[in-house]
Structures are given as C-alpha cells and as structure tokens.
Design goal:
This protein is α/β, with parallel strands linked by helices. Helices cover 33% and strands 11% of the residues. The chain has an eight-stranded mixed β-sheet with strand order 6-5-4-3-2-1-7-8. It starts with 11 loop residues before the first helix and ends in a 12-residue tail after the last helix. Mean pLDDT is 94; it is low at 1-8.
Length: 325
C-alpha cells in the first residue's frame, strides 16, 4: 500500500534559494530541447516522461515546421531532440535534417533499444553521416541493474545497439560523440561522475569491447513514475529530505533551465523538461506556444520552480548534461 505523502511547504526549493540569497532567472537562450512525443518502445520504471508503447501524444509535422521556422528566425544553434523514443516519430528524420540545414548542432537522446526496432536498422549509419551527437540511456553496466529499471532483455539489446554504434564510429571517432546516461536505481544520489565514468569504461571495454565518450550522471527527480514508486515504497518524504539536505548553491548558476527552452509535442514552452512533464508553463505564466514568444526577451525572466527542482541542485547537481560541478 502506498504511503500517504507528507504535506510539505509549497515550494521548498524557493526556500533553499532564499536561505542563500539566491534568485533563479534566465540567461540568454542557447538551445532548444524539443520533445517530439511520449510514444516509446519501452516503459522504464524511472521515466519522468511516463513514456511507453501505448502513449498517443506525438508531434505533427505541422508543429515541427513551425518550430523550425522559429528556430531559423531566432538563429538557434543547438537543438536537443528527445521523447519518448524520438526516432519513432514518423517525421523525426525530416525534423533533424531541418535543424541541420540551419547550421544547428543536433543532439538526439536515444534509448538504444530503438535501434533494433523494425525500420531502424540503418539508424546508426544515418546518425553518423550527419554527425549527430548521441546521448544514450544505460543506467548501469550490469544486466541486473539495467533490467530492474528498464525491463527483461533490455540489457542485451542495449549492448548490441552500442556495438552497432561503435561499428560506425560512435565513441571511437572525435566527430561522433557517444555519451551514456546513468541514473540511480533507487532513492539515492548518483556517485561521483568521474569515478562512475571510469567504472563504466573499464567494465564495458573488458566485458563487451564497447567504447563511449563521456558518462552523464542524472539524479532521479520525484515526479511521475519515480514519485509513484517512492510513494509505494514509503520513501517519498525521506527522499525529499535528502534532496533538501544536500542542496548545493554552487549548482544554481549552471542549471539547464537558465539557458535552455523546453518545447512539448504540442509546441508549448517550458523552462525545462521536468517542468514540461508537470505542465508548469514558462516563467509560471499562462501556457504559450513557442511561436508566441521572442527569444531575445527571455533573458532575465523568472523561472518556474517547485520541490522537484531540489533534484537538480543536490550534491554535484544534475542536468541534461550530467553533473554540474
């Protein structure tokens, strides 16, 4: 039976900022992160998107075209494409090519097993031909831990996918970066990123002959599926206490919400991907679409926050790029 969640302050993260005389506002925009839909070939236990094979939210080409038009007008130079499994969107490749045509550096967030899905056999070569930066989920280097989070059979498929990516140069050639993502398997913070990267490198190389570029450590945020798990296990309150106790003010300047704009499958905008999943609109205002805002007016704007933001500022910090310090 799930444990009732304790009533907590409306925004304990704001309280932590106040204790350190900090404010959180936007810096000049550097990148767009676009979620092209919640459809996925997996349904991971920790997924903050609640993605899965039965989700129907998926970005249309009409919305993609409007995003590309906005990106061109505002001279965006970094595009980060995510999902779900973004590759499953039928317009994904055309969308990526649209950003590349504008001179954008494109990052794709890949769950690895999608490379083994029907119709995706050529995906590693397609990625390599375009020099796409890949950020791939692999929450551990052991079968037991990976399958506890992501399901039976996922580990072997992930290893096979990594071998296919290595075969076309990913993780081996400087122009084809292959970053892996670690997140804890429970209600605790990631260990030191450098140490974990060394462990991953040693084990993946020795056990499977796999090479990669960097490891990114991400903290599990207490939202959606992970929050539900915490409640069922009676660990929600203790986890929130842990995040609060480990609040690190040095992480605040580097938070991804300061320089990134998150766009959902409908074209609506948010301060970050986590706010998107909680449907907290950009700057805490009324919902808006990307094409209704001007990039140059974002700098200095307030950022919508909540208790979940403690996950990004605990310990060494956490962001789409991994540890912050």
């Amino acid at each position: 039976m799930s444990q009732p969640l304790r009533k907590i302050p409306v925004n304990p993260f704001a309280a932590c900022l106040g204790q350190h005389d900090l404010t959180l506002t936007r810096a000049p925009l550097q990148a767009l992160q676009v979620n092209v839909g919640k459809l996925c070939n997996q349904a991971c236990h920790h997924c903050h998107v609640d993605a899965g094979p039965k989700r129907t939210e998926i970005m249309t080409w009409e919305t993609m075209a409007r995003i590309l038009d906005w990106s061109a007008r505002h001279r965006i130079r970094e595009a980060d494409i995510t999902g779900g499994a973004p590759e499953i969107n039928p317009h994904f490749r055309r969308f990526v090519d649209g950003f590349l045509a504008q001179g954008c550096q494109v990052t794709a967030r890949c769950n690895l097993t999608v490379l083994l899905e029907p119709g995706q056999k050529d995906l590693p070569a397609w990625y390599a031909a375009r020099g796409i930066r890949l950020v791939c989920s692999l929450p551990c280097y052991t079968r037991e831990n990976v399958e506890a989070q992501r399901g039976k059979g996922v580990f072997d498929k992930s290893i096979e996918a990594l071998k296919r990516l290595n075969a076309v140069g990913y993780g081996r050639e400087p122009r084809l970066p292959l970053d892996l993502v670690y997140n804890p398997g429970g209600a605790f913070l990631p260990g030191p990123q450098a140490k974990l990267e060394a462990d991953y490198r040693e084990r993946l190389r020795a056990d499977h002959g796999i090479e990669f570029t960097h490891l990114r450590t991400l903290t599990n945020l207490p939202i959606n599926r992970f929050a539900h798990w915490l409640g069922r296990e009676g660990k929600y309150d203790a986890y929130l206490d842990l995040l609060t106790e480990r609040f690190n003010p040095e992480t605040v300047p580097g938070l991804m919400c300061r320089h990134l704009l998150s766009v959902d499958w409908r074209g609506r905008v948010y301060d970050c991907d986590f706010n998107q999943m909680l449907e907290l609109p950009l700057a805490g205002r009324v919902p808006r679409h990307l094409w209704d805002i001007e990039a140059q007016k974002l700098a200095g704007e307030p950022i919508a926050t909540g208790s979940h933001c403690l996950g990004c500022t605990a310990g060494a910090g956490s962001s789409c790029g991994g540890a912050l310090i």
